Amino acid sequence: MPDPKLIPKGFRPVPFDYHEEIELEIDTLTNMGKGLARTQGGWVVFVPFCLPGERVLARIYRNDKNFSEADLVKVITQSPERINPHCELFGQCGGCQYQNLNYSSQLAWKRRQLKELIQHMAGVSFPVAPVIPSPLEYGYRSKITPHFDKPRNNNINAIGFQQAGRRKLIDVPQCAIAHPAINLKLTGARDSIRKASREYKKGATLLFRADDNGNVHTKSADIAVDRVDGIEFQYLAGSFFQNNPSILPEFTSHVKKQASSAGATHMVDAYCGAGLFALTAASQFKETVGIEVSEESVLWAKKNAEINFIKNVRFITGKVEEFFNEISFPGEETAVVIDPPRKGCSNDFLSQLFKFSARTVIYVSCNPATQLRDLLLFQKAGYALEEVQPFDLFPQTKHLECVMTLNNQTTTHHVT
């Protein structure tokens, strides 16, 4: 029994004691990247950093009403899919979940998880295309944001990311999935911060953004430059831009192909940011309009159109409630690309979109759960799911980008 003083306040003592160690057989992987096991009585226990088919020793640290959570103590029987992780901090750092799983199996499991999520949330069995792999399995991430807490006795301790399953920070000298140039910059930056620890009165979040010109930016207002299929994008280093450059050519090409495949002559890029989808797809349409709530993002999108001499694209700033007010062409001739934040689309936006009645909607999401929540509303509005294509923008992690193609069934479309 652990010292009662060490047991967290509010810990539920059933069905397991705090730090009780139990042997488990891992049945499957959840879409959160954790192993799921069931006891003989059917009680669910989640254990990170283990794989299906493995027998493990796990230490309980939390009992919920319907499940328990545990730390992995050791793997008793290994899966044949298990490999050695690249990073020494794997199993401690919460940034990666799958470095112990060979890459082809990562892709297979992400595809299976997405298919199961569609079945569970949408109530349909729909074919999911094989996950498009990232050209780079490590060293792909062009932006990281490590943190440090308020100095104690003028000393800064951990500079890194949250520990897996905990709020505590762990020190991360190097990140295996970060761009190599970022890791080179990270070493010196960490040393400088610690030498200047007396200057910090509270904790901070750092920025490291590597761009296509070989620069590593550490200030949010710096101008980063990336190129996708010959199109140059400039944007503020601290703003949102997809941060696995290696997969962006195939990613944007797929969106362009799906948007134009149903015969639409016009395109709307909602949540357009710096214009990634609008500009890479513009060649396929008579006119493309990008809409964004951020005036700053629209300024950069306009600049990107200008420096690439793309004339058939315009960008407008609009409130979510008024996104389609300045669209002059009819919905039946239009493909709409949406790439909302993780929380998904607002009801205000969806009601406008359904009223606009676009011919095709290409829904890009980094959060399949909210995407599938919205899918139910699309189906009620007369849209049919035509294709589900996942992309692995973040190898070694639980994250998955999903592109769903939805066609409007309420209007008869003739492809020209």
Could you describe the 3D structure shown?
- The chain is an alpha+beta fold.
- It is globular.
- Strand 1 and strand 2 form a beta hairpin.
- It has helices spanning 103-122, 180-195, 248-260, 276-281, 295-307, 347-356, 368-380; strands at 21-29, 34-38, 44-48, 55-63, 67-77, 143-144, 147-148, 159-162, 169-171, 204-205, 208-210, 216-217, 223-228, 231-236, 266-270, 287-292, 313-317, 334-338, 360-365, 383-391, 401-408.
- A 7-stranded mixed β-sheet has the order 17-16-15-18-19-21-20, with helices on both faces. A 5-stranded mixed beta barrel has the order 1-2-3-5-4.
SSE arrangement:
Blueprint: E1 21-29, E2 34-38, E3 44-48, E4 55-63, E5 67-77, H1 103-122, E6 143-144, E7 147-148, E8 159-162, E9 169-171, H2 180-195, E10 204-205, E11 208-210, E12 216-217, E13 223-228, E14 231-236, H3 248-260, E15 266-270, H4 276-281, E16 287-292, H5 295-307, E17 313-317, E18 334-338, H6 347-356, E19 360-365, H7 368-380, E20 383-391, E21 401-408
Parallel strand pairs: 3-5, 15-16, 15-18, 16-17, 18-19
Antiparallel strand pairs: 1-2, 1-4, 2-3, 4-5, 6-11, 7-8, 7-10, 8-9, 11-12, 13-14, 19-21, 20-21
Helix pairs in contact: 1-7
List keywords for this structure.
416 residues, alpha+beta, OB fold (Dihydrolipoamide Acetyltransferase, E2P), 3 domains, 22% helix, 27% strand
At a glance:
With 416 residues, this protein is of the alpha+beta class. The chain is built from 7 helices and 21 strands.
CATH topology term of the largest domain: Rossmann fold
Q: CATH homologous superfamily of the largest domain - what is it?
A: Vaccinia Virus protein VP39
**How many structural domains are formed by the residues?**
3
Globular, elongated, flat, extended or rod-shaped: what is the shape?
Answer: globular
Distance between the termini: 73 Å
Topology pattern, helix = H, strand = E: EEEEEHEEEEHEEEEEHEHEHEEHEHEE
The Rg value, from CA coordinates, equals 24 Å
**Percent of residues in helices:** 10-25%
Structural class: alpha+beta
Annotated CATH architecture of the largest domain: 3-Layer(aba) Sandwich
